[in-house]
Write a structure and sequence with these properties.
The structure is a single chain. This protein has about 180 residues and is an alpha+beta fold. Helix content is about 30%, strand content about 15%. It has 6 helices and 5 strands, in the order H-H-H-E-E-H-E-E-H-E-H. The chain has a 5-stranded mixed sheet, covered by helices on one side. The N terminus is likely disordered.
């Protein structure tokens, strides 16, 4: 069994042709699938996949890095346990940032990035349900992020691709 291809196949002891991968499942659910497979004596192969950030960039027809603009890409989760505070995703954010599963914290993420000095007009691309039939690509600005997420009913599987304006990168680096 190839867990990277389909998590539900563990439950049904067969290969599922409807699922692409288990990316986006909460870690506790993945652990549950692994435990269930082990308990049932089902061999599991964990197959590394391609992060949704790379898929989103490819779908948008762009690179995650660009000479003279972004020489660094930071991949981080924008969510955690419901009772947990905002993850360190904004503290480590850099010139190019891809935040996985971040829609539920969009207002807090926007506020934290603005506090770090990122300009309100910073462009953000939101890739919702990337590589699925329900895929949506939405562009917004940092100062409209929370409203965009809310008005488009974005939750769950969404990647925020944030490219810092070059001037902001220089200003933040010199202040550090």
């Amino acid at each position: 069994m190839r867990l990277g291809v389909c998590a539900c196949s563990i439950q049904f002891e067969q290969t599922c042709t409807n699922c692409h991968h288990i990316a986006g499942l909460p870690a506790n659910e993945i652990a549950g699938f692994l435990s269930a497979a082990k308990a049932a004596g089902i061999p599991v192969e964990i197959v590394p996949g391609v992060t949704a950030a790379f898929v989103a960039a490819a779908t948008l027809g762009r690179s995650l890095t660009e000479r003279g603009q972004t020489d660094t890409i930071v991949l981080a989760t924008g969510t955690g346990r419901p009772e947990a505070p905002l993850p360190d995703c904004t503290r480590f954010a850099g010139p190019g940032t891809a935040l996985h599963m971040a829609a539920c914290h969009a207002p807090r993420i926007a506020e934290a990035l603005l506090e770090r000095g990122l300009p309100p007009h910073t462009q953000i691309e939101i890739a919702v349900d990337i590589s699925k039939p329900t895929e949506r690509l939405i562009e917004t600005r940092l100062d409209a992020l929370a409203q965009t997420v809310d008005s488009n009913a974005i939750d769950g599987c969404a990647i925020l691709l944030i490219t810092w304006p070059f001037a902001a990168q220089q200003q933040i680096v010199s202040a550090a």
